[in-house]
């Protein structure tokens, strides 16, 4: 290999590191905020019904605007959008750390979601452009996944340390210097191919998709405070569904759609998006509920809560880098996807069997099982999320796999929080508690609510396995050796074809 090619090869791996730093920041944000949330709730005096919106405001903005982010990257350049998004995320994080009430915190979280929606598809597209060969792309995504998992794990511990020894605001402030490091490192090392797909941004599509998703997620949230049969709840679901149906209709007719429907018609890509959405529904809800379970029922400190989640994060890393990444460029994806989602279901069933005497160790072991399954399955879903995609749709394909997970997370946070709260309240009613319940009975009610929720979560994981079994038919990848000097930058895909 010539010195010029060796230098270019070294530069792209350095660029991968700084792209992964940006992903670490996004994952760190979710982890530290989950651990800090109970303390933030006490400091800002917001209700249990509002707490889910600290998670959902971010996930909803992220999921609802990812398609926009992918398209903007295709239109104006992935590198430019990547750097802009890092700067915006830093500013939004600083605003969140300065929040004086829950409204200001929710605005900051939503802004973080907006900039993350620009960042994520740009990052994935930049990796795809830099690593066009299946084997090296799998290795690059393995590194990317490992840093992402590390970000989640570091965030769990950092969230506890910052909350316990400083205060919850540092869960937001800590993201600012990480974003600055990402910007300074990416400027000289991260490059795209300069290709632009000039098209007008589909504003009607943006509005219909975003408002439709907000309507559906708000319906789940309204069910907690108003009931499933309330007019507000049903109305939110109906309006959300109608807006999403209108979005599909508009996308089939406009000349430059936000979501070209051809992206969804390939069965393997459709399975990756739908399966990921179904499987992530339990994950976001699990983190929210278990954070409160560890701190309120088991009496763990924020630090120990973060430590209790570490085995799940570590096993997720093993699943992604040691199992999923290896399988993604060696075998057909269907068996691994189905097995991964079913392993998640097994872990959730173990959680559904908890009672008042269940030890923390048993719960952590169940979490570790879930982490192994979800890490393996998500890596394989990533590997087929751009199966046979056209280069001009690479940004949208990159956005959709993230969008499906964030939409699933928004639904999961609202739905599972609502089910857990409603089930706990119903348990108290059936046990004849009309007023203030004892601490023991409240804990029993919470455990009952969590168990009910985990059975529902397991059903979503099984549904993801069924979708994968029925739809996925991609063969094992064929390896074509990369000729020396071949830069092959015209191949744009998120993962193995």
Which characteristics define this entry?
single chain, 497 residues, mainly alpha, Growth Hormone, Chain: A, 0% strand, disordered C terminus, MFS_dom, transmembrane helix, MFS, Drug resistance transporter, EmrB/QacA subfamily
Broad CATH class of the largest domain: Mainly Alpha
- How many structural domains? 2
Characterize the main sheet: none
Report, as a whole number of angstroms, the end-to-end distance.
Answer: 27 Å
Rg for CA atoms? 22 Å
Structural class: mainly alpha
Order of helices and strands: HHHHHHHHHHHHHHHH
The CATH superfamily title of the largest domain: MFS general substrate transporter like domains
**Shape category:** globular
Helix content estimate:
over 70%
Mean pLDDT: 80
Q: Kindly identify the CATH topology of the largest domain.
A: Growth Hormone, Chain: A
The unreliable regions are 480-497
Strand content: under 5%
Second rung of CATH, namely the architecture of the largest domain: Up-down Bundle
Q: How many alpha or pi helices? A: 16
Q: How many strand units?
A: 0
InterPro entries: EmrB-like (IPR004638), MFS (IPR011701), MFS_dom (IPR020846), MFS_trans_sf (IPR036259)
Transmembrane segments: 16-37, 52-69, 81-104, 110-129, 141-162, 168-189, 201-221, 227-250, 271-294, 300-324, 336-354, 360-382, 452-472
GO molecular function, one term: transmembrane transporter activity
Membrane topology: Multi-pass membrane protein
């Amino acid at each position: 290999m010539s010195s010029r090619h060796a230098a270019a090869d070294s530069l792209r791996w350095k660029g991968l590191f700084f792209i992964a730093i940006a992903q670490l920041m996004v994952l760190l944000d979710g982890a530290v905020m989950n651990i800090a949330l109970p303390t933030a709730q006490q400091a800002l005096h917001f209700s249990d019904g509002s707490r889910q919106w600290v998670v959902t405001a971010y996930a909803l903005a992220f999921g609802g605007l990812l398609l926009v982010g992918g398209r903007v990257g295709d239109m104006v350049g992935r590198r430019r959008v990547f750097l802009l998004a890092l700067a915006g995320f830093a500013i939004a994080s600083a605003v969140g750390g300065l929040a004086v009430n829950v409204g200001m915190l929710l605005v900051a979280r939503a802004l973080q979601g907006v900039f993350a929606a620009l960042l994520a598809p740009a990052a994935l597209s930049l990796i795809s452009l830099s690593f066009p060969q299946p084997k090296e792309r799998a290795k690059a995504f393995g590194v990317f996944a490992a840093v992402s998992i590390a970000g989640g794990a570091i965030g769990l511990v950092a969230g506890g340390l910052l909350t316990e020894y400083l205060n919850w605001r540092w869960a937001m402030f800590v993201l600012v210097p990480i974003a600055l490091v990402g910007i300074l490192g990416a400027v000289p090392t991260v490059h795209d191919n300069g290709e632009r797909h000039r098209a007008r941004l589909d504003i009607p599509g943006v509005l219909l998709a975003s408002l439709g998703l907000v309507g559906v997620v708000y319906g789940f949230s309204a069910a907690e405070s108003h009931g499933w049969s309330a007019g507000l709840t049903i109305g939110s679901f109906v309006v959300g569904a109608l807006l999403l149906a209108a979005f599909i209709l508009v996308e089939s007719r406009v000349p430059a759609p936000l979501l070209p429907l051809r992206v969804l018609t390939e069965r393997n890509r459709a399975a990756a998006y739908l399966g990921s959405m179904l499987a992530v529904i339990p994950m976001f809800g699990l983190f929210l509920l278990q954070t409160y379970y560890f701190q309120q029922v088991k009496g763990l400190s924020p630090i120990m809560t973060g430590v209790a989640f570490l085995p799940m994060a570590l096993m997720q890393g093993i699943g992604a880098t040691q199992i999923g990444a290896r399988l993604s460029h060696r075998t057909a994806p269907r068996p691994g996807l189905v097995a991964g989602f079913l392993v998640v279901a097994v872990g959730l069933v173990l959680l559904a069997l908890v009672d008042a005497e269940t030890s923390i160790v048993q719960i952590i072991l169940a979490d570790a099982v879930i982490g192994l399954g979800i890490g393996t399955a998500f890596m394989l879903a990533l590997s087929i999320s751009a199966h046979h995609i056209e280069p001009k749709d690479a940004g949208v394909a990159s956005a959709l796999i993230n969008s499906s997970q964030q939409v699933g997370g928004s639904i999961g946070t609202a739905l599972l929080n609502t089910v857990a709260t409603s089930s706990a309240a119903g348990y108290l009613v059936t046990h004849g508690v009309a007023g203030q319940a004892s601490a023991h009975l409240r804990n029993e009610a919470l455990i009952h609510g969590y168990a009910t929720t985990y059975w529902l979560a397991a059903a979503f994981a099984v549904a993801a396995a069924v979708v994968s079994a029925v739809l996925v038919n991609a063969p094992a990848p064929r390896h074509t050796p990369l000729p020396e000097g071949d830069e092959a930058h015209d191949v744009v895909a998120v993962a193995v074809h």
